[in-house]
Amino acid sequence: MWLKVIIVILFIANVVALGSALFTLLNDMGDGGKGRTVNLLLIRVSLAALLLVFVAYGFYTGQLGVGGAPWAGHS
Question: Is it the case that residue 75 has pLDDT exceeding 60?
Fold first, then answer.
């Protein structure tokens, strides 16, 4: 259960970091020296990599799976 909570938190943090990067990109147009957008995008990429690691760990350990999905085709 804790794994799913961590995955949801990482996904929300990823979306927030992407939105923050867009906000700073639009506000800092023409300011080449700040680099806030690059730092926020680096955080977003790091969060995405961490999210991928947790999802892969969940599939590897069997805590996550496609068994509950409606399209999984239970027969």
Answer: no
